[in-house]
User: Which sequence fits this backbone?
């Protein structure tokens, strides 16, 4: 009996290493519940990307992000957390499959970020790592983030400072430069920002 999940995952690895197996994976995806109609279906696309995060994000990049977020204290909400959160968090994501594999979540909430955030409050910090490029209703989400933060709480947004690769770019809906992102975030928060290697870090205080 064919294990379609294993077959699909092997195909993802081949795709990561440059083998053109997109058509093959599309066919297999119809037999894999969490990947059905991949890559057109957004949830299936991000389910697959979440499984591959350990291969696609360099260890040095991961360490840099962990160091930057390590100063956050108190209760953190990680929006668009996927299958990995860089610090212990309450995690929000639209995919139950990704949440299932996130061991750094102390609580897991399945929710569509295009609707903002569920009714939450009292968070000392909020994090969003490589997320905001893909949110259509960006102003709605940013307003919701402000609402869940305590007074003086901080939202830390991490973005990739270079052009996204062609694979992720097919799902991108917001493409701004460093100053433009600062302007967008400043409509809701008091923003300080810095660049480290190819990463942009925006610390957004709820004043």
Assistant:
């Amino acid at each position: 009996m064919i294990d379609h999940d294993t077959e699909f995952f092997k195909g993802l690895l081949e795709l990561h290493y440059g083998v053109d197996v997109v058509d093959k994976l599309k066919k297999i995806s119809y037999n894999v519940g969490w990947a059905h109609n991949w890559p057109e279906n957004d949830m299936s696309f991000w389910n697959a990307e979440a499984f591959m995060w350990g291969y696609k994000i360099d260890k040095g990049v991961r360490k840099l992000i962990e160091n930057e977020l390590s100063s956050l204290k108190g209760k953190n909400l990680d929006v668009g957390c996927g299958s990995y959160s860089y610090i212990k968090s309450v995690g929000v994501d639209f995919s139950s499959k990704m949440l299932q594999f996130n061991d750094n979540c102390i609580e897991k909430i399945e929710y569509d970020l295009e609707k903002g955030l569920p009714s939450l409050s009292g968070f000392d910090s909020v994090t969003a790592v490589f997320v905001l490029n893909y949110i259509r209703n960006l102003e709605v989400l940013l307003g919701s983030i402000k609402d869940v933060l305590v007074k003086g709480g901080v939202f830390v947004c991490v973005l990739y400072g270079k052009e996204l690769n062609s694979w992720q770019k097919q799902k991108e809906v917001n493409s701004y430069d460093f100053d433009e992102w600062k302007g967008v975030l400043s409509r809701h928060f008091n923003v300080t920002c810095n660049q480290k290697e190819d990463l942009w870090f925006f610390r957004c205080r709820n004043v």
Observations:
- The domain at 58-205 is CATH 3.40.50.150 (Rossmann fold).
- The longest strand covers residues 149-160.
- DSSP finds nine helices and seven strands in the chain.
